[in-house]
Amino acid sequence: MVPIQSRTSHSGVSVGSGPSYRYLVLTDPQCATMPPATLGKIRQLVEAGLTLIGNRPLHPPGLGDLKKPETDFKGHADALWGADSAATGDRSLGNGRVIWGRLVAEILTQDKLVPDCEASQAGNEYALSWLHRRTGPDDFC
To answer: Which helix (H) or strand (E) holds 91?
Structure first.
């Protein structure tokens, strides 16, 4: 669920009174379906300055008469990814952008963002899950 309240700041889009985000990543296959209201909120966040990374969802979830949800879904998806989007692309929308068909690491490198830390053992990289948060002048990892 995407929260209702958001605001733009110098470091990205802030959700409510919480942290700010510069990127939102849609994962496959979890985001292959998406309610039109959620896609509409994502569209607002991109227009406010968020970078959306991920492939276009395929359709809204649901059973029965889906004409209105499909029309709303298509309108938001076309605004974000374009009506005839290719397998890869980059599109500006408002103050934000949408990027699809590329690796997140490649996009972050292109945007000149470097990892806060890297983990390896005997020269072999391994996955490490963690969250970096900044509160005022303090950093928490």
So the answer is: strand 89-93
